[in-house]
Amino acid sequence: MKWTPLLTAPAAIVLIAPAGATVYMSEQQAMQTIFPGASFSPAGKAGVFRASSGGIVVIDRVLGKHEYIKYAVGITAGGAVKHIEIIEYNESYGYEVREASWRSQFVGKNASSPLQLNVDIKNISGATLSCKHITDGVRRIVGQSQSLKGQ
Fold this sequence. Notes:
The chain has 4 helices and 6 strands. Strands 1-6-5-4-3-2 form a 6-stranded antiparallel beta sheet, sandwiched between helices.
């Protein structure tokens, strides 16, 4: 049988096709969801915004399994997590981190909270790396919140 490269082309195209990115909202929409009615100003650091109602919003991204996850974390003036929003998710699996019930576990956590997967944040089977990396990212942001606010 003679080898024909034409037959291998569709398989090659499928293998290199990137996973589709799902953009759930803009950064501005995420900030308004976290601090409704507030206005925002840059806090002097990339991706950090002060809310007129107090607190800050940090736009960050973490690696899921292979692709980045872009999310926003709202921190109250007292340093506790107010809300998190998933802005963009690029992985084929693990999108369940966008579920409100999973994200609500972060509300009220502060720098003295463990903020560790399987300690005070529950894992989602099939989304372990996304859960872990978002949790690590939120812990990093909460730990830096005082310096991010510029105080």
